[in-house]
Structure formats: C-alpha cells, structure tokens
Amino acid sequence: MNDMVLTKDEIEEVYIELREGTPFQSIAEMFDVSYAAIQNVNNGKYYQVPGMRYPIVVRRKKYGKEPPINDPFWDSYEPEPLLYWPLGRTNRE
Questions:
Q1: Is 38 helix (H, G, I), strand (E, B) or coil?
Q2: Predicted local distance difference test score (pLDDT) of residue 4
Q3: Is 82 part of any domain?
Q4: Is 81 exposed, middle or buried (0-12, 13-18, 19+ CB in 10 A)?
Q5: How much is the pTM?
Q6: Is residue 30 assigned to a domain?
Q7: Structurally, how many domains does the chain consist of?
Q8: Is 55 inside a domain boundary?
Q9: Is residue 58 within 8 Å of residue 24, measured between CB atoms?
Q10: What is the pLDDT of residues 14-73, one digit of tens each?
Q11: Domain that holds residue 14
Q12: Using H for helix, E for strand and C for coil, what is the string for the chain?
C-alpha cells in the first residue's frame, strides 16, 4: 500500500520551489497538501532522496523574543532619544 501524497515529479517541483524561496504555505496550497507535509519534505522526514542534504532550506525567524526584565541586557540598554519638533514651528500656514 502506498500512502504517498505527492508523486516523485511533484516532490522535485517542491524542492525547486523551496530553493526559490517560496513560502511553505504557498507551496502547500499549490500541491493541495498541508503545511506540515511541506515541512517534512524540506526536513527529509518523508520523501528522502539519497545523497541530498536536509533540510533543503533553513527558515528561522530573524528576530527572537525580547529578553526577560531581569536579563543583563537591560543594564546596558539605552533607548533611542525622542525627537521633538522645535517649539514655535507648525505646519499650518
């Protein structure tokens, strides 16, 4: 019994889309499969091709969470200075 959702040709197309930077959700919609199925193809959990390195693409968030309030980061943090319009000047004429 074969439970594969994608054919070999479709898997190759998914690899191409991944390398081109197409979002996982868009690829999933193209092939009418779940987001998780595309993640699993990317990670090599399903549909592994011998000799290919996995994950095919690494997509991580660029920014992490804000440090907790007691983190030493806040001891050295200086907020941006506030910018104010000079007094007496307005945009009204």
A1: helix
A2: 64
A3: no
A4: exposed
A5: 0.60
A6: yes
A7: 1
A8: yes
A9: no
A10: 999 999 999 999 999 999 999 999 999 999 987 788 888 899 998 776 666 777 888 887
A11: 8-61
A12: CCCCCCCHHHHHHHHHHHHCCCCHHHHHHHHCCCHHHHHHHHHCCCCCCCCCCCCCCCCCCCCCCCCCCCCCHHHHCCCCCCCCCCCCCCCCC
